[in-house]
Each structure stands twice: as C-alpha cells, then as structure tokens.
Input
Amino acid sequence: MGSVNVYGPPASTAVARVLACLLEKEVKFQLIPVNMAKGKHKAPEYLKIQPFGQVPAFQDESITLFESRAISRYLCDKFADKGNKGLFGNGLLERASIEQWLEAEAQSFNPPSSVLVFQLAFAPRMRLKQDPAVIEQNEGKLAKVLDVYENRLEESRFLAGDDFTLADLSHLPNAQYITGTDRGHLLTSRKNVNRWWEEISSRPSWKKVVEMQKAPPS
Amino acid sequence: MGVLKLHGHPYSGATLRVLSVLHEKGLEFEFVPIDLATGEHKKEHFLSLNPFGQVPAFEDGEIKMFESRAITQYLAHAYADRGTELLFKETKKMAEMSVWAEVEAQKFDPPAFKVVFELILKPMIGGGAADEATVAEQQAALSKVLDVYEARLAGSSYLSGDSFGLADAHHQPLAAFDSRPYVSRWAADILSRPAWVNALAQQSNAP
Output
C-alpha cells in the first residue's frame, strides 16, 4: 500500500488540520503543492477532486475526499489501529463528547477565529487592507467562545475529556496563527485556555506541521 | 439507555434537525420547550446543559450533549439498529457522506441561514426590514454551493450517497425548492419524509 495524497499548501489552516491528523496517526502521505497564486485551485483538473476549488483535497487509493474535518474523521476510522489510537475515542460515549467539541470548533470557534486569521495574518502578507471594525467584532465573538472554553477546561484537561483528541487537534491551525499576532492574548490571558494551548501545541506532531508551514514553498 | 429529552424551540433549525433524526429512528422522547423570547437559553439551568447558551440540548439518561450535528451523529450510532439507517457501514461510503455533512455545516448553512434570517426571522422578531445587500450577497454565495449540489445530485440520488443519510437529514431545516432540477427533486424528496413532517408538527404544539 502506498501513501495517501494531500493537496495544498501547509500554510492553509485546513491543510494543516489534515497534516496534524496524518502525523498523529502516523500515516504516510505525499503533500502535493497547488499553486494558488496561479489559480491552480480553480483549474478544471483540480475542480474534479474538489468542486469548491479549495484546499485541501485528499486521495487514498480509490477514495477522493475534501473538507478537512471529513478527511480527519476518515483517517481516524480507516487507520484506527495506527498511531494515536485514542484520537477519536474508544466507544460511543467518548466519541459523542469528541463529536460535540468538534462541532463546537466548527460552529463557534472557527468562524470568528478564521476571520481573525485572515485579517491579522494573511491580509498583511497579501497586501490587503485590514478592516478594524471586522477585527473588533470578531475579537468580541471569539472572546465569548473562549470564556466558555475557560470554564470547560477548568474541569477537564482537554476539551472532550482526559485525553487529547481530534476535537483539540481541530483548533490547532487557527490558534497557531492567532497566538503569533498581537491578539494572541485572547488565548494566553485565559489561565486554562493557555494551559491547554501550551499542551496541545507542544505535541511533536503539531511542531512538525509548524515546521512544514515555515519551510520555503517547493 | 435512559430517558431521551430534547430541550429546544420548535422554530429553531438546529432543534428541528435533531427532531427529524429522533423521528427517523422511531425513538420516544420528551420535548422540553425553551422560551427563547424570555432568554431562558441564557439562564443558569439551560447553560448547565449547553454552556454556549444555544438550543438544542439533549439528554439520554446520564449523557448530556449539545451541537445538533453531534447529537444526530450520536443518535445514528447509538440507535443504529432502530428505524431508518442513517449511516453507511463501509468506510469509503461513510467517508463520502462525511464530506457532504461537512459541506452542509461549512458551506450551505451559513449563507442559507443568513438569507432566512434576513427575509423571515428578522421581521418576525421585530428586527426591521431585510438588508438587501446582505440578501443579495448571501444568495449569490448559496447559488455557487447549489451549483455544486446540482452536479453531485446528477450522479447520486442523495448527497449522502445512494440512500438517504445523515448528511441529507442535516439539510432539512433550510432546504428549499430551487430552479435546479436535481436539487429540486432532492429537496422535494427529503422534505416529504414522514419523519420531517413529524418534526415540523412540534411547531403546532408551540404556545
């Protein structure tokens, strides 16, 4: 059996999410660049595997998938016995808690944090004007979400329970960018959120993803 | 398993999403209405069920959950042998459904909800007239998503795959008829399911 293919740049938060999962599961992969500056993600050949023209796309033998959280769930399902076996929990109850916090990430954490990642980390690089009103509005939204996390993480070491799971992993890419900006205090000033952030971001798998993000594009 | 309780509001799409799956599974449950108008969802008791202060929240005996799409996943797995089969056993088919469940959550729901909010909900709650610029912008975004749905549904009876699954059920609260032939046929199909009709019937129980 060969390796799986992941399409897209590691700098993309969604691609990074999949890379983190692959590394946790110790699944061999090939990272295939997509030249987004040249619009390759909107080219007909690419749209065949990702009809929304976004990254990542993913292939494993006869399966083609997209949406980073769907890819991650698939990896946990197919490679259940590889790498971090507890990434998606053991049994119905653990899985239910992980699904809940995965949805919280997708529905509550992701929207405001994605806007901040774009405004604070990407817009400057792309020489686009930042929108202070949008930044302020989304800071406010993210702060409310992190207040809930702060309470949760008072009683629980990780979001879904005592162990690191896909639910925590899913937060890594956006949180990484935000903590690298002057709004990082949103996470680091909250005692439990900061403790959680320090712990999840120091995992070797995540450090490897950050290295890949810093490497010059191929 | 214990007594099933769904805390929610019958006009909340997220609540309806869970009601639909409860009915698909033929499960008995207690519906606990939450009075959004008086801010019950932000009060201590409800916050102990969903710290984000949003409906719905769900209990199955000792198990407490929030996030409608996590609750439906739980129900589909915990009660796999009851009622409609909403999951696929094959890893590949399950993964393909999972893609479209994420598409619903990430691509379909945001613009669809914003359109419904501007045109229907905002006036209903005394929030003023629809913001036309927002409506136009969100309808354009939704249109791009529905173009992709049209292509998918031309080659697959349902978004989930060759049979109705969780990814289709998740769309019921915001699905609507459309000029696109395959999307229209699919929307008509999923909206006519008895379980969905039963879910909507909760609205006539509303005070």
